[in-house]
Amino acid sequence: MSHSPTAHPALTENALTHWDSKHKGIRPKDASTLIILDREHGEPKVLMGRRHMRHRFMPGMFVFPGGRLDSSDRIIPFTQDINPEVKRKLLHKAKNGSSDARMRGLIMCAIRETYEEAGLFLGEKSDDITIGTEGWEAFDERSIVPNLEPFRFIARAITPPGRTRRFDTRFFAVDSKHIADRLPEGTGPTGELEDLHWLTIPKAKELELPRITLEILDQLEARLKLDPDFSPNVPTPYYYMVGRSMMQDQI
Fold first, then answer.
1. Which candidate, 107, 59, 62, 58, places its Cα nearest to that of 81?
2. What does DSSP assign to residue 244?
3. Strand partners, 237
4. How many other CB atoms are there within 10 angstroms of residue 178's CB atom?
5. Nearest residue to 145 via CA among 161, 166, 131, 165
6. pLDDT in tens, 150-196
7. CA 84 to each of CA 90, 104, 151, 224, 229: distance values in angstroms, whole numbers, following the listed order
């Protein structure tokens, strides 16, 4: 069975805006997800975990680490800035603000959530910069500071209208070589993700997954074959729902 999205040339972003205004509901909140790729040990693997059953949003589903943007994510210092082409794509029709700080914050959100849920520290050692922000204390203890340059923006997806919780999620990818440290427990302090595993993409697709996660895995598998260097210039898929149809634009 194909998991490719359906699309129609007449259904554009304007159609999405019309749909949201006609079916008034919850405005999507900015969120980020991080796909960490281990390509140093044979076939590429991705890190995934199962959401705790106590969660109201997608309980028991396997997902990548990620979560909602916090206001503090916009003020975190860094060693290197976002790749200019990545930032340009992040700015494309940004619905909740388009400042440089917010665009950086989307990646910082993915970094923070990956620590909280998986116990991994993405960044590099630096004795010259102190983060000094609540929730980032463990980074300061290890003198680890985020480096935004290696992160690639590989997909965007908006939760369909009518849901009790809606997110405008940006999916980022980064190589596992940018993991600067990890907690010895093998998980994060929040316990939000259980059963964390490094899995090949075919094995990951066998899990109980949200529909969009399966679509992202399909796209990731194709991208690794055609563009293993993850060039920032390659078009980024943007998913949203119109009625019951999943639409896909290219950024």
1. 107
2. T
3. 250
4. 18
5. 131
6. 999 999 999 888 777 899 999 999 999 999 999 998 899 998 888 89
7. 10, 11, 11, 22, 17
Which CATH superfamily does the domain covering 13-250 fall into? Nucleoside Triphosphate Pyrophosphohydrolase (3.90.79.10)
Q: Count the Cβ atoms, other than its own, within 10 Å of residue 204.
A: 22
pLDDT score recorded for residue 186: 87
* Cβ 219 vs Cβ 154: under 8 Å: yes
Q: Where are the domains of the chain?
A: 13-250
Q: Give the residue from 153, 157, 156 showing the smallest Cα distance to 172.
A: 153
Cα distance between residue 62 and residue 118, in whole Å: 13
Residues with pLDDT less than 50, the chain:
1-13, 15-23
Q: Which helix (H) or strand (E) holds 112?
A: helix 100-118
Distance, CA of 125 to CA of 137 (rounded, Å): 14
Q: In the structure encoding, which two tokens stand for residue 179, read together? A: 């993991």
